[in-house]
Design a protein that fits this description.
Elements lengths: L4 E3 L2 E3 L3 H10 L6 H12 L10 H13 L31 E3 L1 H4 L3 E4 L5 H13 L10 E7 L5 E9 L5 H7 L3 H7 L3 E9 L3 E3 L2 H21 L5 E7 L6 H5 L3 E5 L17 E7 H6 L1
Parallel strand pairs: 3-8, 7-9
Antiparallel strand pairs: 1-2, 4-5, 5-6, 6-7, 9-11, 10-11
Length: about 290
């Protein structure tokens, strides 16, 4: 018997999968991207500014295909766009390490990244070259480049959409599965945080996290038309201790299970990560 299920925040009622497969089969000329966009229009699947949630739709379709519940057309690899390489800084010579106290470089400022700006080029170069995960920007995001009183770049941050599932976070927020689907937009994920390797300033990391906490709600609302109540992040325990997050009053809420979101067979092992949350609501009420 076919039962109702929920994927990517969409409730799939009995009969929906059969309809979806029939609809795909009736339009063999469509690419996977076209299917996702047309599905968004048919289901009125949009964000709070009325933009199609085609990234979420593509993720749903891939999950259904991975479960063997739909058949998608073959990937049109000849038409796939190659992700452009991050432009290098020319000329570029890595600065010599320098040490200072936080007071000596204050005030430290954050510049929100705007596509095509000189700051955006430097920000992307630093993350691509010096962050162990490189640079990957997908969907909704807000980035920041930090610089000191002498206008020296000192750090980079990137925030994006929250993880779809995270048991420690959901327990801390008291969310049921349905509540998570309804309220996940209130959480934003700190996906990248980099202090430039030649900068040696004690307490700089927690200072930057504090500066972000004071402004990201307004920045996110201005860009996407909705506010933010919580920040989350995942810290690789094999690489970092998470001290700067604790110093900036982020709350440790648990650990991941060491499985990738792409691990459909529960066999792919990835590093266990500590999960931290920051309550922006409490900050606003002070």
């Amino acid at each position: 018997m076919e039962t109702e299920m929920t994927l990517q925040g969409r409730r799939m009622e009995p009969g929906a999968l059969a309809w979806l497969q029939s609809w795909i089969d009736q339009n063999p000329e469509w690419s996977r991207k076209q299917i996702a966009r047309k599905l968004c229009r048919r289901w009125d699947w949009v964000d709070r500014r009325g933009r199609l949630k085609d990234f979420a739709a593509r993720s749903l379709l891939l999950k259904l295909e991975g479960r063997g519940q739909v058949r998608l057309p073959a990937l049109r690899t000849q038409f796939r766009r190659v992700r452009p390489k991050v432009a290098s800084l020319e000329p570029w010579e890595e600065p010599a390490p320098w040490t200072a106290s936080l007071a000596e470089i204050a005030p430290v400022r954050l510049e929100q990244i705007q596509a095509g700006s000189p700051a955006a080029k430097r920000w992307a170069f630093y993350l691509d070259r010096y962050h162990y995960l490189g640079l990957r920007v997908v969907g909704e995001n807000v980035g920041y480049l930090a610089w000191d009183r002498q206008e020296r770049d000192v750090g980079c941050l990137l925030f994006g959409a929250a993880a779809w599932r995270c048991a420690p976070r959901d327990r801390r927020l008291g969310w049921s599965s349905q509540e998570r689907q309804q309220q996940l937009w209130r959480v934003v994920n700190n996906t990248r945080f980099l202090l430039l390797p030649w900068v040696r300033v004690k307490h700089l990391a927690s200072c930057l996290l504090g500066a972000v906490a004071r402004r990201i709600e307004a920045d996110w609302r201005q860009r996407y038309g909705q506010g933010v109540d919580w920040l989350e992040t995942f810290v690789d325990r094999e690489r970092f201790r998470g001290s700067c997050y604790r110093a900036a009053n982020w709350e440790w809420v648990g650990q991941t299970q060491g499985r990738s979101r792409q691990d459909r067979e529960h066999q792919l092992q990835v590093p266990v990560k500590d999960v931290y949350l920051y309550d922006l609501k409490s900050r606003r009420s002070r």
